[in-house]
Structures are given as C-alpha cells and as structure tokens.
C-alpha cells in the first residue's frame, strides 16, 4: 500500500490535490451530458449508461445530474411504456427494467475525449471526390465508419488511465501565486519532497540544461566546460567531465547515454564514460542543439553565421545545411507535431525550416522587436514567443499568423518553456513565473519563484511536475503541480524502462525511422490524395495561355547514297522540328479545350452529321 | 505499479492520447515500407523437388482424405504415390503402356483410378503394402503392384474424372463416357462434334454438371441427368485444361493455347468474366485453390503463375533454372502449397504465399503478421510500396517475350485506332477484350 501510494504520487499531479475523488469519476458534467444525450438519442437504451445514485428510499435510481434540474430518465421512460401497454406487458417491462438496472451497458464517451481523437471531417465535409464509382465510394464510407469506431474506442480507452493530473486550486480569496516551494514541499510526501532540490555549481558558470525524453535524466553543461549527465530522480551520476572548452549547448541523442555538446569550435558526441565518440567538425560555431528522436536527426544552429545543420545520427552524415539569413538567430526549437525547425531572429521574424527546402517553408513577423525567446507546446499546436519589448504572444502553430493571445510582461522574458499539460514557464532576469492555461486568458501567474542570481535556462521535465531552472551558479528543481503528463505510454517513452526495454525500443525506433524527406508542415499529407488546389489549377491554366514550344535538336539517321549531305540533313531536321511543333501545339490545343480556354472547332465528321437532310432534294436549296 | 517485481509479468502502460504519438502517419508508412521489403526478403517459395520419374510428368492428383499424399502419372506410363513431408515414394507401378493420361482419386480416398493411351482404365488401391528400400527392390516391387480392376475401352482415353458425391466416373477420348464402377461397359456416351476430347471435369458443387474441352477448340457443358450436352462454346484457340471454381458453382477457368486464361460464368458464355494475361506461351494446366479466390496455372513458358480470380494479371510467378515446360499443376487441399509437374521429370513443391512461414506460429508472431498485412493493405497505393510489391524477377527470355507481346498488342491497338479514325464513324465497332476470343456459342 505504501509503495503504491508513493508511486502514484510520483507521477502525480499535486500533493495538494485531494485523493482520487470517486464521485468526480462517476458524475458527469452537466454540459457534457446534454450533448451526449443529443448524440445518443437514436441509440438503444442499452448503450446508455447512467451513473447510479442512491435515492432516499434506498432503491437504485438512475438520474442525470444536470445542474439544478434532476431528470429521472428511467422513470419517465417506464411511465411511457406503462401507458402504452396498460397491464399487458407489465411483466416484460419489469424484467427489462431489472435487466437494464443490472447491466447498464457501455459508458458513453465524453465529447471532450472524442474531440481529442478528431481526425478531420472525413468525406462529408472534405474535398469532393469526383469521378469515382458507387462501389468505391461505399468503400470509403465503410472505411470512415471504421475510423469513427476506432476513434470512439480510443476515447473510451481513456477510462483505463491509472493516474489523474490537476493543478493546485486556491480557495476563494486566496491566490496560488503566493504559494512558495516550502509550502508545497511541506505538504507533499517524501518521494515528492526529493524532487525539490538545489545544486550549487559555483565555478563553471551559466549552465544549460536538458531533460531526457523520459524525464529521468538530466544533462547540465556549464559554459566553462563542466558537463554532467545524471539520473536526477535517484541522484545517480552517469557522467561528469571537464571538457576544458566553452560549452554553448547540450542535447541528448537517441538514448540517455549519448550527449551531443556544442563546444568552442565544433560539435562533439560523448558517451556515458565521457569518451568523445565523434567530433563533427563541419558543424562550426554552434549555439543551439536539438534532437528529433523519430527522425534520428540532430539539428544544430550557428546563430552568428546563420547556418542550420541537420545530422543523421544513424549514418553520421549531414543531411543538409541551410542558410537562415534574417540576421542573428536568437533561438531554435523544433515542433514536436511535424518536425519543422523554428528559428527566431533579431529582426522579429520566426522562420520555419524543413530539410527538404533551402528556403523557409514559413516565415512570420512575430514581433516588431527582436524575439527574445520562443517555445512550442509539446502537442505542437501553440507557439509562444516573447520579444525584447516585453510582449508575449501565443500563436496557433497550425494556422500561422493567427495570434490567439497576447500579454504584456513586466520584463522581457529571456526563456520560455511549455509543459506537457500546457503550463508556460517564463524566465525573467532574476525570477521565474509560471502561467496556467495556454488556451484561456493568461492574466496572473499560477506560481512564481525568485532567484538569487541571473537566470540561464528553464525547462519543464516531461512526465514529472518539475521545472528545472539554471542560473549563473545553481541548478534548481522546482515542484510545479499539474505540469507533467500523468499517464505515459510505454510504447513511446517509458520512464521505468529496463535495459532490455531500452534496447528493444532502440531497434524498433530504428526500424520505424522516419525519413527526413517526410518532414512537412502538415504531417498528415503523407499518404493523402494529391488534390490540386485552386491556386495550382489557375497556375496550370495560366501556363496554357502563353505557350513556348520547347526546342529540340533532332539528329537524323545517316543514310547511304549521298542522301546525308548537309542540305538534305538540314531539310530532314527541319521536317522533324516542324512535326514536333505541330504535335506539341495539338496537344496544347486539346488541353486548352479541356480547360475551357478555347472552343472546339467542328470536325469534318461533325459537318456530315449536321448536314443530314430530311429530304434528298433539300441539298439543292 | 510500473516496475516489475520478481516473477511478475511486466505491465505495459498505454495512453492513446495523440499528443504522445507524433508522426503517426509517417511512422506507419515507414513500417508499411519495411513490411513490404521484409516480404521480399523472406520470399522463398521453392520447397523442394520430388525426383524419380524417368519421363515427363503428365498428371497430378490430390487425395481428398489426406493432405500429405500426392499422386503423379508420367509419360512413360509410370504411376507414383508420394509422401510429401518425407519427400519419398510410397509406392509405384507401371500403370499403362504409353502415357498415363488421367489420374483421379475416388472420393473415399481409398482407390486411385488411372487411364491411359493403352485403352484401359485401372483401379488401384491407394494403400499398397510395398515399402521401398533401394532401387533394385523398387523395380521388383513395381512388378508386384497389381490393379484391383481393369476396364477395357474401345479407344485410348485422354482424361478421367470422378463425381464428388457418387462413384460415377467420366472419361474422355473419342467421346465422353460415363461409367459405373460396377459395370464393365459405360452407362452413357455423350458426343457433340467428331474430334478428340482432351479433358473432362466434374463440377464439385453442382455434381451433375460436367464439362469437356476438345481439340476442335470447343468447350462443351453436360448435365448427366439430361443425357444430352447442354451448351457448346467455340474459342479462337484450343483449350488445354479446365477447372471449376470449388466455391462458386457456376464459374470455371480455362487454360488456353493462346497464353491466356479465361474465367467464365456458365450462365453467360457470350463473354468471359475475366481474361488473365501474363504467360508468354500456351497455358497447359489450371487448378483452383480450395478457397476459390485464386488459381494456379502452369505454362509451356516454364513458369507457374498464381492468379487472383478477380484480377487480370498474376499475383506471383515461380520459375527455376531447371524447371522445364510445366504440364500439370495442383493446389494442395489446405491452399498453402502448390505442386507442379514438368518436362524435366520432377514434381516441385512451392508455397502459395511466397513469404509465408511454415510451421506453427506463436500468438505474438501471428499478431505481428496480421499487423504487417494490414499495413501493407493500407499503404498499397503508395508508389514506392507498390513498386516493391509488384516487382518480380523473371528469366530474360520471358522478360523479352513479355516485352515483345506488349509491343505487338499495342501496335495492333494503334492500327485499329487509325483504321477507326479513317473510316466512316460508327462503321468499326469497338471490340471488347472479353468477347474477342470467343467464336460462337451453340445451344
């Protein structure tokens, strides 16, 4: 029991939060229930499941708790039936009623959960498919039914999740902002207490930090050459070396034992024993490093040179390099939703890059001042940027240029990090503020913490309610309730993985390594039907208006008996060219007719058809 | 809760939230591509060759009650009964002088009935007590095996088949004869036209219906209840073999001399249901899978091909350097194997799914295979996957011949289109490929 307790709390959400509230599980939100009822009205009674509430007399009566009004659905339903079959079928009805009470059927899926697994409108509202037969259309319809069923099942599977997450809620008149770390630590259990700690790192000054994807390992790189890699939960040190060079950034590669470090001149890769495995000397003057685990790509940005490098770590080859331009780059991050690399610049733009295109796939003027920091939220839907003019913007990352929310901060934010549950941590000069609700209106901070020294970096730890902060001389681990995702998926990242698990995951990951060519702004374009947009159609039409016949240089065959003299050859060349031209123009003409740019001339056959005279003598008229 | 304790099964936590599963589509596509490539890696369809015959193998027969037994009859009149898993001969006999033209096993699975050029039908017991040890004994034992009964006909027989729900036999040759096992004379004789009748086959579902193909290019359907033939179809080229679909009673497929196979609905003989093209020389033999969804064909071009009934091109092509012209093919009764008998005196055993694994599979392996299959199905239209999936290596001669046939057919098409262009509109009708190989249908 003790063990269970500690481990649930480990992933936990909040020490402050009450124990699992059974009633909360059972009761439905009033708003939800209405929509469910609307959707389910056609379905049979068996598919409905209704929470049981004990009535005063002790008998189990099913009720909907719809706010003020109580709606006794079952009673109403039976009453209707009773009126219909007065006396005749009362026995059957009673039996049915009893059966329904015993077996209420499957629990309805909440619309919230369904929304999460929404894959688009499907055939009904999607682009129209023309020119396909009924049978194929039916196949699509069948397939869509399957997709819908899968969606429902996935949403239903949420019921099986073992953990719950939630933030600290303040009582009326109080604010969570005033909670200090000491308050939180005092009221939490011993395992959680261990997660709040501070490391004094005096001499190697300002530190960069990176949590590994499973949220258990932490790499710290001091500017003066101190590199360490440790399991911060057990506080077990894996690597600690002094590289004796300036370190600019650090990132984990596929597993927690290999680190890529941006050093003075180039990027080096170290293993757990601190041995330099590779020195990637093509990557020169790198300031920012990032790693995309599904593509096995290490991305490096040199901000002063404006060069973006992609390194395929499975082959050890550079995939591509891109010149970013737009002045000095002030930050880099990758979008976990589509694998697009985002760089922010001093001219206020945010540019997005893929390895397949030398130009930016998207560019956005985020601020009219230098962008000071930016971060994606882990779902890849929102982009948070801040500028030197103390602005903070939240953008819709899929619908670029749509600003969802904006905020004026007291100081310019130097660092931003977004947690898995959507908390935003803003790092200012000497303090950190955490805001709640990336979707809602950000008004006042959820929590804040002042720091003793100048801030260097902030990052939320995945799958834990922890925020890591580094300053000039310390690393601080803060407990922020409600930050991490409580339920992990062991098939993707398993914080509790064993050695054999990790090995297997590595092999499976390698087998499903996504090629760099598949990185696009919309990750769902893979395996989609290529339907030309209106723009493309217009472009194709425009091309038909002015036609240049492509030149050819024919080489006529050598012929015997003096037929290959220069005059003869030139003549034959001419004929070939003419033939090519007429054929090409004929083809264009056909296309033009098809596009509606030209009208079809009646052919000689059509003339015959038109001149069918009723009377033989009519032709002499 | 998350860490395994001693002796516990490891729990795997799942969270279906799409946020935790990025690049779903791209990763799935990569997996589908891998699955397709793995299929190619594991495609080893050839299991083994059963050698021993001295002359080409002309006929193969399955035993309805046993999966492991195969019977082959060769051109020198030898009959061999094979134990497939052991890859050895159970017994053999010098059945006929000249070709063994037809081999069939009675529905009880006890007797083998053969017919040959020497005007005899012989009935053999399948369970002969002779056990072969070495070659000398074999030759002696060959003399020892004697048929149970023997019927003498008026002319040489070319094929034999047995009804599926009674003991009636049917033979072909000069005419189609219907035999009862207990009588020495045929019960009834059918004839329509005067040419030799090459093959005869009973329908397995509608057991009273049978069909024959003759060397004057016709296919005749009979009903043994009506005593006269029902219908006759004349093709442009001679038909070498015919097989009824075991699941769809009215459909049958013919292997034609013009390299193609045609699937017909016996109710609508005006046009074929499907034309299966891929062989480059005459198709010699055809046999349906017990599922009725696909069939195997052997050809004079030294290949064995497996076709889906609904598709015009083959799903699979099998060939080896040593395999010569294929005279007979057979699907095994569990639809997992294909047997081919060829000119090089060998019976070959192939897998019907080239990359299938033999032997029992663990549940997890099964699940993995199911998943891969589904992935391949989902992404089959992606160009890269399609290319890999469709690619088959064929011998150079066949590759060239296919190319040549393509050139010829496209030239003919081009010529036809030009003729149409330069003639009075409507005077040249479009030809339907499915009808173009049929001459006429008689009732």
What does this structure look like?
Chain B: Belongs to the WD repeat DCAF13/WDSOF1 family. The complex is a heterodimer of chains A (about 625) and B (about 450). Chain A is built from 13 helices and 32 strands. Among the domains of chain A are: about 5-80, no CATH class; about 110-145, no CATH class; about 530-620, no CATH class. Helices cover about 25% and strands about 25% of the residues of chain A. With about 450 residues, chain B is of the alpha+beta class. Chain B is about 20% helix and about 35% strand. Chain B has helices at about 25-40, 135-145, 365-380, 385-390, 395-420, 435, and strands at about 45-50, 55-65, 65-75, 80-85, 90-95, 100-105, 110-115, 120-125, 150, 160, 170, 175-180, 190, 195-200, 210-215, 220-225, 230-235, 240-245, 250-255, 260-265, 275, 285-290, 295-300, 305-310, 315-320, 325-330, 335-340, 345-350, 440. In chain B, strands 14-15-16-17-29 form a five-stranded antiparallel β-sheet. In chain B, strands 1-28-27-26 form a four-stranded antiparallel β-sheet, with no helix packed on it. The longest helix of chain B is centred in the last third of the chain and has 26 residues, at about 395-420. The termini of chain B are far apart. At the A-B interface, α1 of A face α1 of B.
């Amino acid at each position: 029991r003790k063990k269970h307790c500690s481990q649930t709390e480990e992933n936990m959400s909040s020490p402050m939060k009450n124990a699992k509230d059974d009633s909360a599980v059972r009761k439905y939100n009033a708003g939800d229930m209405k929509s469910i009822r609307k959707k389910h009205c056609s379905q049979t009674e068996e598919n409905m499941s209704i929470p049981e509430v004990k009535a005063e007399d002790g008998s189990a009566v099913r009720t909907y708790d719809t706010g003020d009004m109580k709606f006794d659905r079952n009673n109403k339903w039976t009453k209707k039936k009773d009126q219909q079959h007065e006396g005749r079928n009362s026995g059957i009805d009673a039996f049915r009623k009893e059966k329904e009470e015993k077996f209420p059927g499957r629990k309805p899926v909440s619309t919230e959960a369904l929304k999460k697994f929404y894959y688009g409108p499907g055939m009904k509202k999607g682009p129209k498919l023309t020119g396909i037969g009924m049978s194929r259309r039916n196949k699509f319809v069948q397939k869509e039914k399957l997709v819908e069923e899968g969606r429902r099942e996935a949403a239903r599977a949420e019921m099986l999740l073992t953990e719950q997450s939630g933030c600290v809620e303040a009582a009326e008149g109080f604010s969570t902002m005033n909670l200090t770390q000491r308050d939180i630590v005092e009221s939490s259990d011993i395992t959680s207490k261990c997660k709040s700690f501070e490391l004094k790192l005096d001499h190697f000054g300002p530190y960069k930090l990176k949590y590994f994807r499973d949220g258990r390992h932490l790499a710290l790189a001091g500017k003066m050459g101190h590199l360490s890699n440790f399991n911060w939960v057990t506080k077990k040190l894996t690597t600690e070396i002094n590289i004796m060079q300036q370190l600019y950034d650090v990132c984990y590669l596929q597993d927690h034992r290999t680190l890529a470090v941006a050093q003075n001149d180039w990027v080096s890769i170290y293993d757990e024993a601190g041995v330099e495995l590779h020195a990637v000397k093509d990557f020169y003057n790198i300031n920012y490093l990032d790693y995309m685990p599904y593509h096995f790509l290490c991305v490096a940005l040199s901000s002063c040179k404006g060069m973006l490098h992609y390194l395929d770590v499975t082959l050890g080859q550079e995939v591509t390099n891109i010149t970013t331009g737009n002045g000095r780059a002030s930050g880099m991050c990758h979008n976990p939703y589509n694998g697009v690399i985002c760089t922010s610049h001093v001219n206020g733009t945010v540019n997005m890059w893929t390895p397949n295109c030398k130009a930016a796939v998207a560019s956005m003027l985020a601020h009219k001042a230098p962008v000071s920091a930016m971060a994606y939220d882990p779902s890849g839907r929102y982009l948070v940027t801040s500028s030197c003019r103390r602005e903070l913007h939240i953008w819709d990352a899929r619908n670029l240029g749509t600003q969802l929310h904006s905020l004026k901060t007291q100081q310019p934010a130097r660092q931003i990090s977004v947690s898995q549950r959507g908390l935003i941590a803003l790092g200012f000069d000497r303090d950190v503020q955490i805001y709640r609700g990336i979707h809602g209106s950000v008004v006042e901070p959820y929590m804040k913490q002042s720091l003793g020294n100048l801030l260097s970096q902030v990052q939320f730890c995945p799958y834990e309610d922890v925020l890591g902060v580094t300053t000039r001389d310390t690393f601080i681990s803060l407990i922020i309730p409600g930050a991490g995702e409580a339920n992990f998926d062991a098939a993707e990242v398993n914080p509790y993985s064993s050695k054999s698990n990790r090995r297997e995951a590595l092999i499976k990951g390698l087998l499903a390594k996504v090629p760099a060519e598949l990185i696009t702004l919309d990750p769902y374009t893979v395996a989609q039907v290529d339907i030309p947009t209106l723009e493309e159609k217009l472009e194709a039409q425009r091309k038909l208006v002015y036609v240049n016949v492509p030149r050819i240089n024919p080489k006529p065959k050598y012929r015997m008996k003096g037929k290959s003299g220069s005059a003869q050859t030139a003549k034959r060349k001419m004929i070939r060219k003419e033939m090519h031209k007429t054929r090409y123009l004929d083809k264009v003409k056909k296309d033009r007719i098809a596009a509606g740019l030209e009208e079809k001339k009646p052919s000689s056959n059509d003339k015959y058809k038109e001149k069918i005279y009723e009377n033989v003598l009519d032709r002499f008229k | 809760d998350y860490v395994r304790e001693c002796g516990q099964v490891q729990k795997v936590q799942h969270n279906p939230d799409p946020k935790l599963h990025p690049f779903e589509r791209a990763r799935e596509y990569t997996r589908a591509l891998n699955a397709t490539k793995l299929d190619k890696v594991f495609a080893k369809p050839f299991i083994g060759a059963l050698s021993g015959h001295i002359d080409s193998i002309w006929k193969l027969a399955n035993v309805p009650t046993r999966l492991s037994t195969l019977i082959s009859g060769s051109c020198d009149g030898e009959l061999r009964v094979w134990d497939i898993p052991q890859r050895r001969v159970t017994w053999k006999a010098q059945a006929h002088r000249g070709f063994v033209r037809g081999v069939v096993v009675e529905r009880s699975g006890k007797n083998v009935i053969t017919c040959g050029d020497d005007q005899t039908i012989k009935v053999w017991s399948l369970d002969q007590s002779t056990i072969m040890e070495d070659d000398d004994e074999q030759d002696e034992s060959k003399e020892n095996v004697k048929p149970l009964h023997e019927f003498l006909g008026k002319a040489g027989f070319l094929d034999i088949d047995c009804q599926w729900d009674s003991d009636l036999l049917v033979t072909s040759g000069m005419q189609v004869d219907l035999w009862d096992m207990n009588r020495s004379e045929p019960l009834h004789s059918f004839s329509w036209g005067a040419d030799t009748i090459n093959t005869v086959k009973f329908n397995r579902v509608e057991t009273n219906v049978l069909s024959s193909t003759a060397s004057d290019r016709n296919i005749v359907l009979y009903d043994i209840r009506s005593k006269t033939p029902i219908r006759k179809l004349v093709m442009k080229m001679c038909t070498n073999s015919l097989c009824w679909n075991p699941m769809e009673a009215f459909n049958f497929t013919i292997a034609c001399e013009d390299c193609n196979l045609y699937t017909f609905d016996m109710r609508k003989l005006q046009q074929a249901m499907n034309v299966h093209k891929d062989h480059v020389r005459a198709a010699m033999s055809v046999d349906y899978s017990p599922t009725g969804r696909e069939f195997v064909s052997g050809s004079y071009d030294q290949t064995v091909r497996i076709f889906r009934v609904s598709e015009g091109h083959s799903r699979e092509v099998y060939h080896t350097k040593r395999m010569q012209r294929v005279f007979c093919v057979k699907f095994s009764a569990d639809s997992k194997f294909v047997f081919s008998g060829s000119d090089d005196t060998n019976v070959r055993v192939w897998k019907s799914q080239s990359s299938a694994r033999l032997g029992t599979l663990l549940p997890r392996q099964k699940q993995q295979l199911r998943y891969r299959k589904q992935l391949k199905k989902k992404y089959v239209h992606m160009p890269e996957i399609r290319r890999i999936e469709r690619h088959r290596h064929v011998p150079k001669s066949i590759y060239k011949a296919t190319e040549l046939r393509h050139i010829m057919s496209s030239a003919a098409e081009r010529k036809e289109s030009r003729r149409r262009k330069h003639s009075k509109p409507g005077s040249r009708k479009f030809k339907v490929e499915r009808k173009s190989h049929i001459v006429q249908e008689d009732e």
